[in-house]
Amino acid sequence: RAEQSQKPKPALRPEEPTTPQSYEDRKLERDKSISRSERHAGRALAAARRRVEQIAAVVALGELDEARHQIANLVEEQCASGDSEHAAKSLSNIAMAVLNLGYSDWSVELSRLAIELNDKDVKARCQYGATLLSCKRLDDALAEYDQAQILDPRDVSALTGRAEVLKATGRYEDALAEY
C-alpha cells in the first residue's frame, strides 16, 4: 500500500499547445454548430425585416395602396408557411413605421391585427399600447399594457408604458409607483 501511494499519477490528458484562432476559424466553428433550420430561420427573419423596411419606404413615398398590397402579401405568405407569430411581428413593426410617418389610425388597425394573429405577444401588446397612447386613447392603452403585464409581469416595456399612460391621465403617484 505504501508503494502504491508513492507512484506518480499519470496525466489525464497531455497539454496541447494552443494557438489563437483567426476570426475566420472561429466563424467557421460557430457556423458548423448552427443547424440548417436555424440558418434558414435567420435568413427568413432577415428577409421579413427587409420587406418591412421596403413597405415602410413605400408608405413614406405616399403609395398607400401599394403598401397595403405588400402588407397583405407578406402576412399571407408568413401565415401560409405556418408562421403567424412572425406575421404578427411584421405587422407590429409596420405599425410602428406607419405611426412614425403620421398614420396613427392605420397603425392602430395594423397593431390590432398583429394581436389577433398572436395574442400572447407581449411586444405586440406593448406596441399597440404605445400606438393607442399616441392617439390619446388612454383607457384602451392602459388595458393593452395591463394585458402585456399579465403575460409577463416583469416586462419593462409593459411597466414603463403603463406608467406613461398613468402619467398622461394625471395619476402621477400611480405612475411613479410603476417606475
Report what the structure shows.
With 179 residues, the protein is mainly alpha-helical. Helix content is 76%, strand content 0%. It contains ten helices and no strands. Helix 5 (84-100) packs parallel to helix 7 (122-134), helix 6 (104-117) runs antiparallel to helix 7 and helix 9 packs antiparallel against helix 10. The radius of gyration is 25 Å and the shape is globular.
Structure characteristics:
179 residues, mainly alpha, 76% helix, globular
Short description:
By secondary structure, this protein is mainly alpha-helical.
Order of helices and strands: HHHHHHHHHH
Largest sheet: none
Roughly how many Å is the radius of gyration?
A: 25 Å
Total helices: the number is: 10
Measured distance between first and last alpha carbons:
68 Å
> Helicity range of the residues?
over 70%
Percent of residues in beta strands? under 5%
Mean pLDDT: 85
Quaternary structure annotation: single chain
What general form does the structure show? globular
Number of strands: 0
Structural classification: mainly alpha
Which spans of ≥5 residues are poorly predicted at pLDDT below 50?
none
List the helices and strands and how they pair.
Elements: H1 2-6, H2 23-33, H3 36-60, H4 64-80, H5 84-100, H6 104-117, H7 122-134, H8 138-151, H9 156-168, H10 172-178
Helix pairs in contact: 3-4, 3-5, 4-5, 5-6, 5-7, 6-7, 7-8, 7-9, 8-9, 9-10
